[in-house]
């Protein structure tokens, strides 16, 4: 069936209006809404497809590639990942690396130390400098200016070792600065900076502008008596928050575990309040879903991860909506 010139012009105009409306809607989101790829599953392309098409995202956080730590991926796998990102028009928020998620040499053994970390972070201390060099190269490959790190497996008494821990973080931060990169320290309950107050103290001790916080309220919430928002958040220097991980948690004293992960809209973290505060304070970097909760249906680990992440992403967007934020 032939299309008249008038119908063609009207169609083009309608498409232009639709594109403009989509762009305007995207621009209303103050954050880089994202998801960690392997929280959806181990198939990188499927994760990207779901992130872009089902979740409507323009950003993704990379932690592993096809079940391998990012820095262990082959050159061919990295090249394939780049093609997949381009196919789905996804940008990378940061590299969710395992940098310094290891034992500190000379320090007492940590109860948190494990040679079989869930997310393939078992890289010995002597290889950490090489790991950082790889990450710097990969950050350029994937077009991101952010690398996530930790501050070693948690010690029962970290005071005698804090200066050495900070020295290593400063050294890494200075290396990153030479490449215009941001080093993001995630507060992680299994590492020496776990709670919000500990994160605030670390940022005060290391004032480097390119050393910022990956603020994880769920991790902070695992500490008894901790109130991630508003109490902990108000203690943090807002201009030093460079990334946010989004998940939820409940404490289970007396149970098999002291805490359990939850969907984003269920648990002790007040995400509605936190989202309002982030917008109020001008935060405009990533808010990235790190599901962790595995309560969704499925008959394989990947199926359970995908269904759980779908449920958590819905909860995340519901919280954004209640906060008056459209993403």
Automatic annotation (TrEMBL):
| Transmembrane portions of the chain | none
One Pfam short name: AP_endonuc_2
Family matches, as SUPFAM superfamilies: Xylose isomerase-like (SSF51658)
Q: Which Gene3D superfamilies match?
A: Divalent-metal-dependent TIM barrel enzymes (3.20.20.150)
- Tell me which UniProt keywords the record has, alphabetically: Isomerase
InterPro entries, from UniProt?
Answer: IolE/XylAMocC-like, Xyl_isomerase-like_sf, Xyl_isomerase-like_TIM-brl
Annotated GO molecular function terms are:
isomerase activity
Task: Report the domain of life of the source organism.
Answer: Bacteria
Q: Where is the Xylose isomerase-like TIM barrel domain?
A: 51-307
Q: What is this protein called?
A: Xylose isomerase domain-containing protein TIM barrel
Q: Which species?
A: Granulicella mallensis (strain ATCC BAA-1857 / DSM 23137 / MP5ACTX8)
